[in-house]
Amino acid sequence: MLDTVKAWVRQSQRMAVLTGAGVSAESGVPTFRDAQTGYWAQFRPEDMATEAGFRAHPQWVWDWYQYRRDLLAGVLPNSGHGALADFQRRHPDRITLITQNVDGLHQRAGSTGVLYLHGDIFENRWLNTPRHCCHIDHAVAGHPPYCDRCGNLVRPGVVWFGESLPPATLGAAEQAVARCDLMLVVGTAGAVYPAAGLAHQARSAGARVVVLNPAPSALDDVAQVVLRGASATVLPQLLGE
Ligand code: OAD
Questions:
Q1: 19 CB less than 6 Å from ligand 1?
Q2: Which of 3, 8, 67, 89 is the 20 to 30 A CA-CA neighbour of 235?
Q3: What is the CATH number for 67?
Q4: 30 alpha carbon – ligand 1 mean position (Å)
């Protein structure tokens, strides 16, 4: 099956790649849904990844994002991220990289133009629509930082459950998926929409869809081929020269 997919990669003129937390697992970044090691085995997503959760316990939630930022500062992109970036360097017009990850590791590996569906964990924004007093200079250090004039809180610039994805980014991803002839779905459980819907859209539009994951995913049935393996090993095999 690996050889079949390698041939599909060679033939492909327009490939879309959707990645999830699994591509960063071998860098030492926990996934969300893996039993025991995933963040959602330890925390409830409604506490840590919703606006209501943040409003209820701002310090706790803020500190968790700070912990994740610190963890990311101490890890490196792995050979899966590297294989995607190398492929783009060799074939800049043939790949669109779409990720649900907020960890910035694709960019650090050298990928450009990455479509970050769920935002960037290193960005901050105001929780409430900022009044004119909410200048970033007025953010007072704290857990979380807050506006010293009106008390508005700073929150992480990621997409939480119940929030819309950045429309331009989602639009660009949908366009890439509608035009692709091959879609690789790598390291995602396929449980979160609209991101997971991109694989369905690619298949409906006639593209070949390949899932790469060491464990069963909710998108296995959408794919013509499922490769069971770890992305840091298999992506270099698939995308290498
Ligand atoms: P999940 O944690 O749901 O899924 C991670 C997937 O990676 C699982 O299917 C694993 O089997 C797979 N995996 C583990 N190790 C791997 C490896 N070495 N190589 C390849 N795959 C591996 O993460 P996502 O599907 O990315 O959203 O989760 C989607 C969204 O749910 C996240 O963006 C996050 C989360 O809640 C928000 O925070 C809004």
A1: no
A2: 67
A3: 3.30.1600.10
A4: 9
| pLDDT tens track for 202-233 | 999 999 999 999 999 999 999 999 999 999 99
- Residue 214 near ligand 1, beta carbon < 6 Å: yes
Closest CA to 225 of 199, 201, 198, 205: 199
Q: What is the pTM of this model?
A: 0.97
Please state the rounded mean pLDDT for residues 71-92: 98
The residues that bridge with 156 in the sheet, in sequence order, are: 124
27 touches ligand 1 (CB under 6 Å): no
Distance from the alpha carbon of residue 33 to the mean position of ligand 1, in angstroms: 6
Domain count, the chain: 2
Which is the catalytic residue, given 81, 118, 135, 138?
118
Residue closest by Cα to atom 39 of ligand 1: 160
In sequence order, the β-bridge partners of residue 125 are 155
Tell me the average pLDDT across 96-124.
98
How does pLDDT run across 159-203, given as a tens digit for each residue?
999 999 999 999 999 999 999 999 999 999 999 999 999 999 999
Query: What is residue 138's predicted lDDT score, i.e. its pLDDT?
Result: 75
- Residue 118 annotated among the catalytic residues of the structure: yes
Torsion-angle region of 234 (φ positive above 0: left; ψ -120 to 50: alpha; else: beta): alpha
Q: State the virtual CA torsion across 88, 89, 90, 96 in degrees, nearest 10.
A: 20
Q: What is the domain range of residue 223?
A: 2-28+77-118+165-239
Count the Cβ atoms, other than its own, within 10 Å of residue 39.
Answer: 18
User: Do 147 and 48 share a domain, yes or no?
Assistant: yes
